[in-house]
Write a structure and sequence with these properties.
300 residues, 11 helices, HET, single chain, 4-stranded mixed beta sheet, Heterokaryon incompatibility domain-containing protein, alpha+beta
Length: 300
């Protein structure tokens, strides 16, 4: 499950309730998103459901550090990722009441030079402007969950969307989004196509290798536009993607950068470097608890 915690704290696994949770977790104690996700899992005839707040001991830094390093295996080895795209917290659930007649595409009939045409009208930025603008996909941790999963079903505010290496589709266009409106970046398309090869340790072509290097730049750009509650999580939240890219390229990873082409990667800048009060957003000094990365890395 990919979900937003939001301002609320959902039911959590802790050192103190671990023994109780190993015995049972009462269904009624779970927030609506978790209960909906269980319903979807059962309808898909899948036995196990992984939820971060119930599968990582939340008051144990050691367990968190251990599990955070395994996100590429958790999401990458999953059967399917259930994304609560339209929910800003775990109480809002997966399902929405919709007027399905209003779902795109809108059909317009035109007459031109005596002939009648039937045109389907869609927004050009359907992926970015519709799906990826949902509350869930504005969260930094969710970026790698989406990128690592072999297939994802997104429960959006208007319709359900499907993503896998072969197809991006939705309820109103079950055969796939037309190329003109599927505005997923070319690098992300390459990433999804080579992901099975990376996992099987197949040898990539020179073209695929070049595209993967470009993919990291695109990933960092998209990731840093997302919101992150705990700033110290900046590198852990994208570590799963970095782990697979490093494995595929055989390159050394250094605080969000790669040894290959390091000088070029150091040429980063902060777009909005001041807060709403006009003060610099970066502090001159960092305490150990604030530390995210070396000052020369974008993650700082």
């Amino acid at each position: 499950l990919s979900h937003c915690w939001g301002g609320m704290q959902p039911i959590r696994l802790t050192v103190w309730n671990r023994a109780e949770f190993l015995e049972r977790i009462h269904f009624d104690s779970l927030p609506l998103t978790f209960r909906n996700a269980i319903a979807v899992t059962r309808r898909l005839c899948i036995r196990y459901l992984w939820i971060d707040s119930l599968c990582i001991i939340q008051d144990s830094r050691d367990d968190w550090d251990h599990e955070a390093a395994l996100m590429d295996e958790v999401y990458g080895s999953s059967y399917i990722n259930i994304a609560a795209a339209n929910a800003s917290n775990s109480a809002e659930g997966l399902f929405r009441h919709r007027r399905t007649a209003l779902l795109p595409p809108s059909v317009v009939r035109l007459r031109w030079r005596g002939e009648e045409f039937r045109c389907n009208v869609l927004r050009e930025d359907m992926m970015q402007g519709d799906l990826l603008s949902e509350p869930l996909h504005r969260r930094a941790w969710v970026f790698q969950e989406r990128m690592l999963s072999p297939r994802t079903v997104h429960f959006g505010g208007r319709q359900v969307t499907w993503q896998c290496p072969e197809l991006t589709a939705c309820e109103s266009m079950p055969n796939g989004l037309p190329a003109g409106v599927n505005d997923m970046s070319p690098e992300e398309r390459v990433w999804r196509s080579v992901l099975p090869d990376i996992k099987s340790e197949a040898i990539l072509t020179d073209v695929q290798t070049a595209e993967l290097r470009r993919m990291w730049q695109v990933a960092v750009s998209a990731f840093t536009n997302c919101n992150l509650t705990v700033q110290a999580d900046k590198l852990p939240a994208i570590a799963g993607v970095a782990k697979l890219i490093g494995k595929a390229l055989g390159e050394e990873y250094v605080a969000g950068l790669w040894k290959y082409g390091l000088a070029e990667q150091l040429a980063w800048r902060v777009r909005n470097c001041r807060t709403s009060e006009g003060k610099p957003s970066r502090r001159q000094g960092q305490s150990l608890s604030d530390y995210r990365a070396p000052s020369w890395a974008w993650a700082s």
